[in-house]
Specification:
heterodimer; A: mainly alpha; Ferritin; 12 helices; 67% helix; globular; B: Ferritin; two-stranded antiparallel ribbon; 13 helices; binds fe (ii) ion
């Protein structure tokens, strides 16, 4: 089945929803793998927030598109090329430094985006943004705190975080490659980029991490459904049951 | 000393709670540490078999319910480790004992989860068996443990209901789903019954534990209570208990069952279950792989403390 996304507003929603969902699935992989029990529980909290957020966004998407599809259809019945999450969030949990760096880079971006969506003409999206921003501010506080702990902590943790940042920065330019859909709904994208850079530069400097140059790769854009090789594997695992038993309900 | 002991016995006699600052016999403390540690490790190791299906949960809702449950179990672990701390044993010590094979956890978590209905079966049968045991432990004589049980039982009963809900869905679903549900019951029925431990006649630690009111009811009594409560639920689901001798005894009002396979039980307890090695390796590896994180957090805390105090 191919599920098309037909309006610009729906395109905006599906990007947001897919990004939060895929990041949540990555965090689910950390369950029982946290560096200590308290952090394990905290990562699950984060994943639960992201799942709840994704679910609300998919519901709004389903309502907007009006095709009698449920949130779960969007999650479980689309293929790799029909997903629109940013490549940043599909990157693997190589080690805890990757988990933190990915989360931090996401949180800074998500905060700016949802702050702008407070002004959305769609009252449901505006309301959801308000709720979501509380969670994101908390998550950002935590991910930033870990950036400092890892950056300043020991030589090893500093090296690991530096490596994670070096690798993940390849996927940052994509966040800022706004297209007409984004520009239609997200105000002041220039300001958003400035905010992001200021916040991130400041944190990296404080954490003794060298800021890599922002240089685009020739990977095509996730807004067109292009991804790294990681996403397909993530989806095949996530979608296994509904795909294997299409007649079943759960 | 004798005065202390008399005071302790009087508290037990009157069904009052022993608190951390009270005098207690060494053996009482040892028994409690062993039991609380085993309970805490069970909560934490139990995260693994359920986590095995987290990434494959078939709906957004079921994924959230399952993740919240696993997170609760981690919280129970934390809570119980802190009960052990009131008995002067640190979490680190207990985890070292676990890794060295000196501490145990419930043998039921040494069985693999092989289909989605197993997630239902664990919530319903395993948390269900745990509840029967833990409700009885709410009256245990050690205050912090008793209070932990009150809090934990409330969450466990949620888990059981959610597990049963999965079973209803599976049992009333497609033919394949019904098969998965029956398969899960077939594999988890006896391990769940064995969660209550050996028969009363073979139970090494029961004597003093009953006298000191750490344990309030016997293994066999609790097991029977669980069976009597659960068999009608299996029937309600339209599934069968994997035991041809399971039938209602009209005279006693209780269900009879086949003898349990204690050889298997002892094998699994002693490390030869299907997943013992994997569960412990997983826990040990995660600890080792993340040592640098804990070191970084400690180093950072120390550095920032130095900065703050020099200001
Ligand atoms: Fe629990
Ligand atoms: Fe428990
Ligand atoms: Fe539970």
């Amino acid at each position: 089945m191919v599920i098309s996304i037909d309006t610009n507003f729906a395109r905006l929603l599906v990007r947001l929803a897919d990004t939060e969902l895929i990041l949540a699935q990555r965090l689910c992989e950390m369950c029982s793998r946290g560096p200590f029990l308290e952090e394990d529980i905290a990562l699950s909290n984060l994943a639960l927030d992201l799942l709840g957020r994704a679910e609300e966004l998919y519901k709004l998407l389903a309502e907007t598109e009006g095709k009698e599809l449920a949130a779960d259809d969007y999650v479980y019945r689309r293929n790799e090329r029909e997903f629109f999450c940013y490549k940043l969030v599909e990157q693997p949990n190589t080690d805890f430094a990757w988990v933190i760096a990915r989360q931090y880079l996401h949180d800074v971006y998500a905060k700016s985006v949802f702050t702008r969506l407070l002004q959305s003409d769609n009252s449901k999206l505006a309301g959801l943004s308000e709720k979501v921003l509380k969670e994101i501010r908390y998550s950002l506080e935590r991910s930033k705190d870990w950036m400092l702990r890892l950056g300043i902590g020991t030589e090893e943790s500093n090296h690991r975080l530096q490596f994670a940042i070096d690798r993940l920065f390849r996927f940052v330019p994509e966040l800022f490659a706004f297209d007409t859909v984004d520009l239609q709904y997200i105000a002041d994208t220039e300001g958003l980029i400035e905010e992001w850079k200021m916040e991130v530069s400041d944190t990296l400097r404080t954490a003794n991490i060298q800021e890599p140059e922002l240089k685009s790769t020739h990977l095509r854009d996730s807004r067109e459904g292009f991804h790294t090789e990681y996403l397909g594997h993530l989806l095949s695992e996530m979608q296994f049951l509904p795909r294997a038993y299409p007649d079943a309900t759960w | 000393m004798e005065k202390h002991e008399a005071a302790f016995n009087a508290l037990i006699e009157q069904d009052l709670k022993i608190e951390p600052h009270d005098w207690m016999p060494d053996e009482y403390r040892k028994h409690l540490v062993r039991q609380v540690s085993q309970h805490a490790h069970s909560e934490v190791i139990g995260m693994q078999p359920e986590g095995n299906w987290l990434l494959r949960a078939p709906s957004l809702r079921s994924k959230q319910v399952l993740l919240a449950k696993i997170q609760d179990e981690g919280g129970h672990g934390l809570y119980l480790y802190s009960v052990a701390e009131t008995l002067n044993v640190s979490r680190e010590e207990l985890i070292t004992q676990l890794h060295e094979g000196k501490a145990r956890y419930s043998s039921v978590f040494n069985y693999p989860t092989l289909n989605w209905a197993d997630i239902g079966a664990i919530g319903w049968l395993v948390d269900g068996a745990a509840i029967v045991n833990q409700v009885s432990l709410q009256k245990t004589s050690y205050g912090p443990y008793s209070r932990a049980m009150v809090r934990i039982c409330m969450e466990e009963s949620f888990h059981q209901r959610q597990g049963f809900e999965i079973m209803i869905h599976m049992a009333r679903g497609t033919k394949e789903q019904r098969e998965m549900a029956q398969d899960a019951v077939n594999r988890f029925w006896f391990p769940a019954l064995m969660m209550f431990g050996p028969h009363d006649t073979d139970s090494a630690h029961t004597g003093n534990a009953m006298k000191w009111k750490i344990k309030r009811e016997s293994n066999d009594y609790l097991r029977q209570k669980f069976i009597d409560k659960t068999v009608p639920q299996v029937e309600f689901l339209g599934l069968t208990v994997p035991d041809p001798n399971c039938r209602l005894n009209e005279t006693t009002g209780s269900y009879e069952h086949s003898p349990l396979d204690w050889n298997e039980f002892h094998d699994v307890i002693n490390g030869y279950g299907p997943c013992n090695t994997d569960r412990l390796d997983h826990h040990r590896n995660v600890q080792q792989e993340n040592r640098w994180v804990r070191e970084a957090a400690a180093a950072y805390a120390q550095k920032t403390e130095t900065v703050n105090s020099s200001l």
